[in-house]
Specification:
There is one protein chain. The chain is an alpha/beta fold and about 350 residues long. It has two domains: about 5-120 and about 305-325, Nucleotidyltransferase, domain 5 (2-Layer Sandwich); about 130-300, ATPase, nucleotide binding domain (Nucleotidyltransferase, domain 5), CATH 3.30.420.40. Helix content is about 40%, strand content about 20%. The strands form two sheets. The protein has a five-stranded mixed sheet with strand order 3-2-1-4-5, with helices on both faces. Helix 8 links the parallel strand 9 (about 270-275) and strand 10. The relative contact order is 0.18.
Length: about 350
Amino acid sequence: MTSTDIYILAIESSCDDTGAAVLCNGKVLSNVVANQEIHTKYGGVVPELASRAHQQNIVPVVHQALAQANIDKNQLNAIAFTQGPGLMGSLLVGTSFAKAFAQGLNIPLLAVNHMHAHILAHFIDDDLQTKPEFPFLAMTISGGHTQIVKVESYFNMTVIGETIDDAIGEAFDKSAKILGLPYPGGPLIDKKATLGNPKAFEFPKPKAPDLNFSFSGLKTAVLYFVQKKLKENPNFIEENINDVCASLQHTIIGIVIDKLKKATKTTGIKRIAIGGGVSANSGIRKALLDGEQKYGWTTYIPKFEYTTDNAAMIGIVGYLKYLEKDFSNEQTTANARFKI
């Protein structure tokens, strides 16, 4: 440790994962996540159960993050936390803990926008990922969000396209539920898609204006398709699950790539960085990398551990805000609908 080292403790509690990380000068020393298995049997996140689990997990997760980083809490320079967007009960747990901890240590507080963090995860100091140059286009895709963002600097971002109904992760998970797959179904669709024929079945691509997205119509089309096929053959899902998953994923990837092609043409920017939990999808990653040859863009993909909800991405935003002296105060409140 030197006098110029800046240690940030980061806390993430926007949904159902309790995360804590310690960063030193933008480098991750620890990144701990406690998952909540309880939601699996309900087929989705139950907000009240999520907030209770955060209350149980946050102290041991923070303790583990400090221990793994091999630092004492008194070495911390500031505490960063997710202000929003997310589930209000979950956000309140992280916000309250961060405020109390920062006050007890008499160090600054740094409020972070969860969607900023997914984008700026690319700037974590890690040899295994490349930092994009400004300006670039960020494609943030998760269970709750689907956005194309024009990024001109760390804190100068403009949403130029977003979903007008369901998020891409929601489309994956709800389609998986229709197919009888357990929650979370998105990763299971991705896994089964690798074993199927993406051209076996044709699903519609919902129309959305400009650079916006729509996935609710696709989800409904999957429902009607499966209902029809089951009437014809009660064993249809069991016999065709891989092909259905491959065809559905192929359709969703096509929607994403079409919008990105339009975005690069509209803005003239050919640097594309992805983030959010759904950016872990192998098909989407491959399609974006293939686009480098097909469409002449450059793709930036963060390490897998920085794509899903995690505290390291909150920490890098906190570090950048610390350098700008952009601190929050005790009156800062959680914001479930925080916008970029």
